[in-house]
Design goal:
alpha+beta; Translation Initiation Factor IF3; Alpha-Beta Plaits; 2 domains; five-stranded mixed β-sheet; about 40% helix; about 35% strand; disordered N terminus
Length: about 250
């Protein structure tokens, strides 16, 4: 009986040691797992990728104004109406389509006579009536040339003032997708080069944030936090930037 009791005590001791050992082993495994998770969470590489592309504007908006001044308002309007017909005929002759022409409402300014001290009086000296005409077209080159030649209207007795054309790119939405893909690819290549230099590899992309788009003249490197959208140049340069985080592997 004494031997049996001693055997049971030995078994209990062995079982206790096994449980204790298992507990220690499990703790080590769990600890290692937590360390791996922490490592996955904290060890990342942050990079900035960029892409650049030159584009050519495919839409143009050009506006010009003309005016008449006369002591009699009716005469001023009549002269302005005649000028409008001359300007429209000129544009149509040059190849502009009727639906591409937008005519604004006439704007009237009353000009008061001044006294000997240069101060305005209540006496009406004349009426200045002005009107703006605008051309919106996908035929950029043609309208651009017309804008340059439009001073010919001055020789027709019209007080014509041409403004600088505005140039737009209408496929910007599609271009953004292409540029973001290229910028992200550039970011990945930079991350790989940085990781390789330390004997590591990059893992999955953890996060990505799109930067602003910069649309500038070809030779400009102007940057703003809200993004640029140049309309003054026919040829433009589009720059896209993304900020990406990658996990670091071994």
């Amino acid at each position: 009986m004494g031997s049996l009791k001693e055997l049971k005590n030995v078994q209990i001791i062995i079982l206790g040691l096994c449980i204790a050992g298992g507990t220690v082993f499990s703790s080590l495994v769990i600890s290692k797992g937590l360390m791996s998770i922490k490592k996955f969470s904290n060890e990342v590489i942050d990079v900035t990728g960029s892409a650049e592309k030159k584009i050519v504007s495919d839409y143009i908006v050009w506006s010009a104004s003309f005016s008449r001044r006369d002591p009699d308002m009716v005469n001023a309007f009549a002269k302005l109406k005649n000028d409008l017909e001359v300007v429209k005929d000129y544009l149509l002759f040059k190849g502009v389509k009727g639906e591409e022409i937008v005519v604004s409402q006439a704007d009237t300014t009353i000009l008061y006579a001044k006294n000997e001290k240069g101060n305005s009086t209540n006496d009406i000296e004349a009426y200045l009536i002005a009107q703006t005409i605008e051309v919106r077209s996908f035929d950029v080159k043609k309208v651009d040339n017309i804008a340059r030649e439009s001073t010919e209207l001055i020789n027709k007795g019209i007080q014509f003032i041409s403004r600088a054309p505005e140039y737009f790119y209408t496929k910007l939405a599609e271009l953004k997708h292409e540029m973001l893909a290229k910028a992200t690819k550039d970011a990945k290549q930079r991350a790989e080069q940085m990781a390789d230099s330390t004997g590591n590899k990059i893992g999955l992309m953890r996060s990505a944030r799109m930067g602003t788009f910069q649309i500038n003249p070809v030779n400009s490197y102007d940057v703003s936090w809200y993004g640029n959208n140049d309309t003054s140049s026919y040829e433009k340069k589009v720059t896209a930037v993304v900020n990406v985080s990658f996990a670091i592997g071994e």
